[in-house]
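Help needed: design a sequence for this.
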């Protein structure tokens, strides 16, 4: 498993034990103004009674300055290229997911 990172704060080698962990199935939406970008993370929550239904549940709002958002997108894009080059993510899967997103946006 490869790792890549941004700048490390001085004097820190490991994250603190109390650092929250976030699991997200995806991003629900995104809105912006000239200075900031805001988006909601979501997860698919299972039915508590054991049924097969699940619910798209927004659980966190992320607000970033525009430059921070752009830096993040470029970082993720670079990491995606790396995952493809390492054979972790097939190019065909990316094409399928992009087509799905384009269809979802058009609806």
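Sure. Designed sequence:
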């Amino acid at each position: 498993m490869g790792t890549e990172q941004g700048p490390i704060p001085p004097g820190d080698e490991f994250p603190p034990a109390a650092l929250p962990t976030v699991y997200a199935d995806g991003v629900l939406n995104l809105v912006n103004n000239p200075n900031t970008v805001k988006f909601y993370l979501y997860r698919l929550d299972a039915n508590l009674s054991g049924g097969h239904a699940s619910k798209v549940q927004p659980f966190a709002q992320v607000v970033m300055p525009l430059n921070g958002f752009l830096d993040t997108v470029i970082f993720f894009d670079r990491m995606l290229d790396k995952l493809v080059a390492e054979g972790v993510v097939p190019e065909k899967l990316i094409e399928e997911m992009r087509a799905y997103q384009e269809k979802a946006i058009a609806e």
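The chain has a mean pLDDT of 89.
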